[in-house]
Amino acid sequence: MSDSKTERARCVFEVKDYSDGTFWVMMNLDRQGLELPGEGFLGFEFARKMNMKEADEFADLLNRTIKDVSLTTFEPALRRRTG
Protein backbone atom coordinates (compact mmCIF):
# COMPACT_ATOMS: atom_id res chain seq x y z
CA MET A 1 0.00 0.00 0.00
CA SER A 2 1.24 3.52 -0.68
CA ASP A 3 0.31 7.03 0.32
CA SER A 4 -0.11 9.74 -2.25
CA LYS A 5 0.53 13.46 -2.21
CA THR A 6 -1.02 15.79 -4.78
CA GLU A 7 0.12 19.36 -5.30
CA ARG A 8 -1.45 21.86 -7.68
CA ALA A 9 -0.21 25.05 -9.27
CA ARG A 10 -1.59 27.67 -11.61
CA CYS A 11 -0.06 27.52 -15.05
CA VAL A 12 0.32 29.77 -18.07
CA PHE A 13 1.20 28.59 -21.57
CA GLU A 14 3.49 30.71 -23.78
CA VAL A 15 4.66 30.26 -27.36
CA LYS A 16 8.43 30.09 -27.83
CA ASP A 17 10.56 29.45 -30.88
CA TYR A 18 13.77 27.60 -31.56
CA SER A 19 16.56 29.30 -33.50
CA ASP A 20 15.37 27.50 -36.64
CA GLY A 21 11.94 29.17 -36.36
CA THR A 22 10.08 26.10 -35.09
CA PHE A 23 7.45 27.07 -32.52
CA TRP A 24 6.73 25.23 -29.27
CA VAL A 25 4.70 25.88 -26.11
CA MET A 26 6.20 26.36 -22.65
CA MET A 27 4.15 25.83 -19.51
CA ASN A 28 5.08 28.27 -16.73
CA LEU A 29 4.10 27.24 -13.20
CA ASP A 30 3.33 29.29 -10.13
CA ARG A 31 5.93 27.56 -7.96
CA GLN A 32 4.17 28.55 -4.73
CA GLY A 33 1.70 25.73 -5.19
CA LEU A 34 3.95 22.96 -6.48
CA GLU A 35 7.30 21.73 -5.23
CA LEU A 36 9.61 20.58 -7.98
CA PRO A 37 13.11 19.18 -7.44
CA GLY A 38 14.82 21.97 -9.38
CA GLU A 39 14.41 24.87 -11.76
CA GLY A 40 13.06 24.30 -15.22
CA PHE A 41 9.88 24.13 -17.26
CA LEU A 42 7.69 21.75 -19.19
CA GLY A 43 7.59 22.21 -22.96
CA PHE A 44 5.36 20.84 -25.69
CA GLU A 45 6.47 20.36 -29.29
CA PHE A 46 3.85 20.20 -32.01
CA ALA A 47 3.28 17.02 -34.02
CA ARG A 48 3.35 19.11 -37.19
CA LYS A 49 4.96 22.41 -38.07
CA MET A 50 2.75 25.36 -37.13
CA ASN A 51 3.04 29.02 -37.96
CA MET A 52 3.05 31.68 -35.23
CA LYS A 53 -0.69 32.38 -35.53
CA GLU A 54 -1.58 28.68 -35.12
CA ALA A 55 0.81 28.31 -32.19
CA ASP A 56 -0.64 31.42 -30.48
CA GLU A 57 -4.20 30.13 -31.00
CA PHE A 58 -3.21 26.81 -29.44
CA ALA A 59 -1.58 28.49 -26.42
CA ASP A 60 -4.68 30.71 -26.04
CA LEU A 61 -6.90 27.62 -26.07
CA LEU A 62 -4.77 26.00 -23.35
CA ASN A 63 -4.86 29.17 -21.24
CA ARG A 64 -8.65 29.41 -21.54
CA THR A 65 -9.29 25.75 -20.68
CA ILE A 66 -6.55 24.65 -18.26
CA LYS A 67 -6.53 26.36 -14.88
CA ASP A 68 -4.12 24.24 -12.84
CA VAL A 69 -1.62 21.45 -13.29
CA SER A 70 -1.24 18.77 -10.63
CA LEU A 71 1.52 16.37 -9.69
CA THR A 72 0.72 13.27 -7.67
CA THR A 73 3.55 11.29 -6.11
CA PHE A 74 3.36 7.97 -4.31
CA GLU A 75 5.48 6.90 -1.39
CA PRO A 76 5.47 3.26 -0.27
CA ALA A 77 4.22 2.93 3.31
CA LEU A 78 7.25 0.82 4.34
CA ARG A 79 9.72 3.46 3.19
CA ARG A 80 7.80 6.16 5.02
CA ARG A 81 7.83 4.22 8.31
CA THR A 82 11.52 3.32 8.19
CA GLY A 83 12.87 6.51 6.64
Description:
The chain is α+β, with helices and mostly antiparallel strands. It has two helices and four strands; from the N terminus they run βββαβα. The chain is elongated, with a radius of gyration of 17 Å. The two termini are 16 Å apart.
Tag the structure with descriptive keywords.
single chain, 2 helices, elongated
Please describe the topology of this protein.
Elements: E1 2-17, E2 23-29, E3 42-45, H1 52-65, E4 68-76, H2 77-82
Antiparallel strand pairs: 1-2, 1-4, 2-3
Tell me briefly what this model is.
The protein is an alpha+beta fold.
- Taking all Cα atoms into account, the compactness measure Rg is 17 Å
Q: Briefly note the structural class of the backbone.
A: alpha+beta
Let me know the number of strands.
4
Mean pLDDT: 85
Number of domains: 1
Number of H- or I-type helical stretches: 2
Low confidence ranges = none
